[in-house]
Amino acid sequence: MTASKGNPQGQSRNRFPEGAGHGGNRFPEVWGRVPPRHKNFTGRDEQISALRGGLLNQVTAVVPHSPSDPVVPHTLHGYGGVGKTLMAVEYAHRYRAEYDLVWWIMADQPGLVDSALAHLAPHLGLPGPAVTGVEDAADAVLEALRKGEPYSRWLLIFDNADEPEELTEVIPQGPGHVLITTRNHRWEGVAETVPVNVFSEHESVEFLKKRIPRGITTAEAVELSEALGYLPLALEQAGALQSETGMSTQEYLRLLSERTGPLLREGKPPEYPKPMTAAWQLSVEKLKENLPEAMELLRCCAFFGPEPIPRDLFFPVDDGPIRPEMAALMDDPIRLSKAIGQLGRYALVRLDQANRTIQVHRLIQALLREELDEATQESIRVEVWSLLSAAAPNSFTDAASQARYFELLSHMRPAGVAESERPEVRRFALNMLNFLYVSGNFETAGRYAENFIEKWTADSGEEDSFVLEAQAKYANRLRDLGSYIASHDLNLAILPRMRRTLGHAHPETLSVLSGLGADYRARGDFWQAREHDEEVLRQYQEAFGPNDTATLRAMNSLALDHALTSDFAGAQSKHERAYMLFKRSGPTGASPTLLAFWSGLAQVVRLAGDYTEACDLGEDALAYGREHLGVDDPRTLRTQVDLAIARRLSGELDEALELGQDAHSRYLRLHGINHPSTLAAAMCLANLWRMTGELAGALELAEDTDMRYAQAYGADHPYKHGCTSNVALLYRLMGDPARSRSMNESALTALEARLGRNHHYTLAAATNLASDLAALGEAKNATRLGRGTLRRYRSLLGEEHPSSLACASNLVLDLRAEQETDDADAMAEHTFTGFLRALGREHSFTGAAGEGRRLVADFDPPLL
């Protein structure tokens, strides 16, 4: 068993002792994507023993000496056809009883490795990629593996990796084992390498006697092995052909000798081993004689990727450009099944009966493609595009559809889907972008979108409708990744072309128009966003009616604009309408849209000063998000941060702190430290620490977050200036009012320039600056600034909004300092009565006003 946490590091370093009390036939708790064991696996005992010993003694298999101890992956290295993958499969099966988790990852397309890791998340008790997105789920998996929770005895196998740099970020640290198969010698510099070479003569003979149980003598096996260069894949081909056809070894050797000369004259590339090429062609010739349609199926498989191909992709396609021989084969399920079986018996494909997949070695695929003329290659490539697009579901959100898209994704690039000009194939490609977005794989979606845009623009021009849709999706991914300027510029560029090509009222055109509003918000241009989104809503209402979901989303966006421009009443009215109309339509199951509307309503109720109602709404919304979307879903966490703010403002500090700390830690794990959502959670936490007396920690966190806001949004974004005012507030509370004053003056000037004097961000900074002046003994200036700020607050939010009351309560103190006792007394009574009505007698703000303590105006940046 795994060493206990209490064991000192000086004890045994072996966390995977042999036996471990498990039966040899025991399967791990998690056994994912591992190919079936090869029944004729032979030899390799020395290499497998070296691999096992190395894994048991490596750094990753022990309690680390320090958190910086690196993972040392082990690699099986050798050229194509020597059996690296089969050896990894054998290791996984042979030692499966010693692991609690074994997970197989196809690593030849680095962009898909995150997806393979992400699909491990539910097996670790973590939200899956449908909930959090692929990158976030993959990061959570790596963190769980690092901690060894819930499994410390794990094995990850990355099959057919290329460059080491492509996997650096996804090799997990921790107590488990990492095994990599590769043809790239550069792994020798970064991993413990076990070389996998051709068979020995003894292993070759043993293998052939297993593969051809009757009909081959030891002497014949020795002769055949030598002729095939002891290459395992070639031996497998030869054994399969002889076993299937009854061909004698001498006949096979004669044909092999006849084929070798032409093969050498054809000048095959050096990566094609000559024995493999010869053996393969013999098998192909025999297959052509016995079942020619199976050969056509094999050629079709050569234009997929080398990953498993779902067998049900080979299904009749209506009006698709399918070759007649393939169409006839797919129309006859019995002959299709026979053809697949023949390919398996000749060892030209690897069949996984449990998962119903076909897999063709990349070397065989390359040889198959090379023998075809360009016209035939093109016809088969078009056929594969048609099969892929016909197999794609219309939905992107349910589990079955997402699993299907994930299977198809691994074949996108090898099949060259981006090269197609057929409408149904391009629609499939755009649907794949939708899937990548829904699953949260924003970076991969961006890379595919760039590829589509480049190729389709060259083939069809920049005003092609598919090009424009791909550009619109790419703009959204840029915004998701924080590239706000690039998103805005792209949307501006494609909008006129969208209107010319698709029309002003087309859903894609309106989506781009709505995206521009989001760009304006992200850039801090709140008034421009509001004006823009008013027009967007009008166009949606005209095109789709007032109650359509797309129209309600546009209304929700406009509500956000109203809140960002200090019109809380207008924002609340729109949020309520969007929420109620959408909820009345009865969305079934998990609805991110419903949660967005719900949490938006809770946020604006809090901004309007009704903290109790905001807590009630936020609590219900958070419960919905956790139940239906998951605790780590970004929309759930956004609701949680807003609820933490509402709890803090209502005086429930313990509950608020628990929510805020939890949300911040989850955002750090899911998104990293520089993501805007993480920054908002960090500022929320800094405000909580300030209110619970942890001033030093609050200042450190607030200063770091303030700096990161400048990097994320730009130095002149309103959020940046609001965060600066929070930092200034902490300096004053820690005894440095002069520094606070300087920072608040800078923030106030910038906010007035960006948002005007009558914006709630500006007035909050002015409230804090008045407190700085008072602390510096400048009561007259504090009073003057306080009077003007209070007047604007009351005009903007009303006399009994908590922000107006806080400003008035502080002004009472400054009036007393200026000996304006009558005015101070009258305002104090009026303010205390207002607090009683707005928040109640027990609220801390009411108590502070009654006791003559100064209140603060802090800033909580909304998540856009």
Could you describe the 3D structure shown?
The two termini are 48 Å apart. This protein has 38 helices and nine strands. The relative contact order is 0.05. Among the domains are: 30-195, 3-Layer(aba) Sandwich (Rossmann fold); 201-290, no CATH class; 418-430 and 437-520, Serine Threonine Protein Phosphatase 5, Tetratricopeptide repeat (Alpha Horseshoe), CATH 1.25.40.10; 759-864, Alpha Horseshoe (Serine Threonine Protein Phosphatase 5, Tetratricopeptide repeat), CATH 1.25.40.10. It is elongated and about 120 Å long. With 864 residues, it is mainly alpha-helical. Strand 8 (350-352) and strand 9 (357-359) form a beta hairpin. Helices cover 63% and strands 5% of the residues.
Short description:
The chain has 864 residues and is mainly alpha-helical.
Q: Assess the beta-strand content as a share of residues.
A: under 5%
Structural class: mainly alpha
Radius of gyration from the alpha-carbon trace, in angstroms: 33 Å
CATH architecture field of the domain at 30-195: 3-Layer(aba) Sandwich
Low-confidence parts: 1-14, 17-23, 59-69, 263-267
Tell me the overall shape: elongated
Strand order of the largest sheet: 1-3-4-5-2-6
Q: Which fold name fills CATH's third level, the topology of the domain at 30-195?
A: Rossmann fold
Query: Number of DSSP helices?
Result: 38
Distance between the termini: 48 Å
